[in-house]
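ping. complex inputs:
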Amino acid sequence: MISSVALFTFIAELTSRLSGLNDQVLLRVNGLAGRSWLFDSLVGLTQENDLLKAGIIGCCFFAAWYSGKTTEQTHAGRKILLTTLIAAVCVMATTKALSKTIFLPRPAIESQKIYHLSGDDLVELKRTNVRVPLDEESQKEHRELVNGDVESNDLGSFPSDHAGFFLTISLGIFLAYRRIGLVALGWTVFVILAGKLIQGAHAPIDILAGGFVAVTELSAVRLIAKNRLDSLLEVLTSWSFKYAALSSALLFAIVFEISSTLFHVRQALALLAAARHHLLG
Amino acid sequence: MKILGVALCALFLLTSCQVLGKDGLIIMTDRSYKATVFMTNKSGFGAPDGLRWFNGKLYLADEGAGALEAWTSDGCIKTLLDGQFGARSPEDLVIDPAGNVFFSDDDAGGVWEVDAAGKQQLLAGKDKGLYSTEGIALAPDGSIIVGDTDAHQLFKVSRGGDVSVFLGREFGIAKPESMTFDDKGNLYIADNEDNVLYLLDTNHQLHRVIDRQNGFSPETIFYSRGSLYITDSQSGKLYIYTPNEDLKPLAAFGGQLRNIQGVTTDDRGDIYVSVQSDLKHKVGYIIKISKETAVS
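pong. complex structure:
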């Protein structure tokens, strides 16, 4: 009895401290926003512009695909990259499913006066004091938010799908080729994810959770690939050497999708789901 | 050490999630207001649409339950008229100063009445051209004005049950979803198919007050103390409109609270909004929006 009370107190204390730390880090990093139009516009550009946001990661993936001093090295690297792609799709599915289940609005949304339905009561959420960036897009989104226009995507920010997806890809590139992987990881952490914090689009806990899903699922997929999918990966990799032109074309399509966080694939899947709903009832 | 680290991380992630499961929220775009749940299905209603206060009782046009109901402050809900008498999908209601309740029904059609003594009657039904009635208002002369979706017209129903055209097809109203008179005798009409808020003045001239503005789609309108309260079920917003001022959002409803329907106010000016979370499974809420009391 005493030990369970002690454990409960410990968990409550730990949660409270970590939650406080989460808020502190968010406010420190977000504190950079709203001071300089130029800085905010540059950060905004890295979040809105696919070439700057994810194009760099796509380039790193492309470079890693063709790297390797010997054919054996390139062959081994491609197997890791193929495994990474499978893991990235799994991570995207997991983070999307979790964020649709868990109600945790973006910090920018939590800056408003919000009541959340908890059981049969409306509970007012703790308000975060998030700074609004000065760039045009952020100001427009803020005006829409003040007017009550909220996207359903903004209500489930935990875990961050961007963190999950790009950390998976970057870690995979890193496992294949250290130098290129460091560039990809650096861009993901210091540009893409830091930008999310600066803009108040995600809290550190969202990003940590996304990273946690990325590391866990990449490790799991690598383990499964090693034990169960090795022969399939071997065939695919050999095929990519044999049919170099066709595999390059497919690689372009894959990198294109990486650069848009699988947006077009998800759009096509949504159309299929809608068609199934309309045609089959 | 590694296991401890992973366990702590997982614990942090799980315990930091505020709520698991279904979400429903209200963003107060006017921060001087607060929101509370006034009633849930536990009170005994289905999924109400129209609401009206009268003499300390809240009357509900309960579309989900197919009944007209009255809630009293002791927490009881009394059914005044239901499917046994022919009602199917009560939409909106009005109450005259004597306490007679009139409601519309978009499935069964007609204008229905439960008088102050509790006597039920179909005042005018489908046989008089009222096929799918939606908005309903009490005219200054005591007659009932009702909008019909199928006919795209407004009808005047006398207390004796006589029906005449009040606003014909030539006025171009697609779906008269809700109606209310102001204190000057002007009639506001909400058309949530063409997304227009009309004003019919006392000279019978029709004006487009808010015309397809930024996705605005008026569901229910209610006039009180110089202002018009408007619910918009498409965007999940509650608005206040004061003539000669802009349309101002008071609150935005999201998640399972998004489908807001009826709106009314009580004597103190508190606003009540009905929410149909799931009409088919009779899940609804009544939310109270009131001014924050100043802390001295």
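The longest strand of chain A covers residues 114-118.
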